[in-house]
Amino acid sequence: MDPVAERVTEDIESLGLKKYVVELDENGYTVLPPDVACPNGFRDRLLDACLDVAESRNGERPDLQMDRVYLPGHAEQFEGALGAERGDSPIGDMMQSLVVEGEIFEEALMNPVLLALSAYLTGYSSVLLTMACFIKGPNKTELPLHCDAMGPSPLSLISTECNLTYALTDYTKENGCLAVVPESHKLCRQPRGEERLVAKNPYAIPVECPAGSLVCWHGNTWHGAYSRQASGLRVSLVIDFVRKHIRTAEHLTEYMPEEVLARNSARFAVITHQAMAPTIPDQSKNDQNMARAKRVLEEYNQELGFDLQKYEWSPYA
After folding, report:
1. β-strands 223-225, 213-218 pairing
2. What is the mean predicted confidence (pLDDT) over 273-298?
3. CA separation for the pair 284, 307 (Å, rounded)
4. Which CATH number covers residue 84?
5. Measured between alpha carbons, how far is 109 from 273 in angstroms, rounded to an integer?
6. Of 102, 161, 251, 313, which is the most exposed, with the fewest CB atoms less than 10 Å away?
7. Residue 130 φ/ψ, nearest 5 degrees
8. Tens-digit pLDDT profile for residues 110-148
9. How many Å apart are CA 310 and CA 317, to the nearest integer?
10. By the 8 A CB rule, do 184 and 172 touch?
11. Could you tell me if residue 27 is inside a domain?
């Protein structure tokens, strides 16, 4: 008996997500339409919030209609990277640690359909690798195909990482949308050589979808992005989950404001690293972190209705 698997199945069926899970299993990715992913104007609010953060961090509000490469000052790290020419970027800007930037981002993280898919792929004890907004303007360079899961081949067929991306502007090939290679998650390895080149890989296809869609893919799925040929900006919010044994890109353990934790569930606390207690050279702080982690796990088990740690053998734990 696996109560964790039963809980995943209940969540998926109650939210009407079964057909999307079938697509995940078969193709390695799926797209939830706006009425499922972002009902009641959520996409508009989330887009405005991302632009607010960009204005706060970069000193200027992005113009969604701009007709030039979007490279705010701190994004210079991406110039010349990933095959880009100097002054060009396959990424544009990347703003991380957005979960602390307002309640709208907490809502995006705890979206029930997003959580159901993340639990299906990486389990109920998975944690946030990163929450990042990407803003990309017209550019010349494609983002090479890769998979998010790391490690030597063969990678685990059971997903150790999953990406859930809110497309906050329309995704089309001309707009520089996501590229994927369907069924590549079954290969359990990174692409090699010319397999990495979007333009030269005959199996790469564009993921085209309207603003407000949620794109989800398995950690092994080969994906990249087309260069943006159209004017204007592509804006997306990426929420990436990993299994708890994997090192995260963001360190939130001691940096989540108490008022944020107080207004959210124990599951939110687990996702934002409050059940993690990495050892540091400060014993008193270690004791505090361990006590917090124990309390959060107890509260989370109460929410779930079972002791998650007893079922760590389950792929959904």
Report:
1. unpaired
2. 91
3. 28
4. 2.60.120.620
5. 14
6. 313
7. -165, 150
8. 999 999 999 999 999 999 999 999 999 998 889 999 999
9. 9
10. no
11. yes
**Full domain range(s) for residue 51:** 3-249
Average pLDDT over residues 38-42: 98
Query: Which range is least confidently modeled, 11-20, 129-138, 261-270, 277-286?
Result: 277-286
Model pLDDT, residue 87: 66
Q: Looking at residue 72, what is its pLDDT?
A: 74
pLDDT attached to residue 78: 63
Q: Which residues contact 8 (CB under 8 A, 6 or more apart)?
A: 116, 119, 120, 124, 316
Amino acid letter for position 137: G
- Closest-CA residue to 1 (of 297, 302, 270, 306): 306
> Does 282 have pLDDT greater than 90?
no
* Amino acid at the residue 57: R
Residues 6+ apart with CB under 8 A from 166: 37, 38, 43, 46, 108, 212, 213, 214, 236, 237, 238, 239
Q: Which two tokens stand for residue 297?
A: 């796990």
Please tell me the distance from the alpha carbon of residue 127 to that of residue 123, in angstroms, as a whole number: 9
User: Which tokens sit at 281?
Assistant: 């050279």
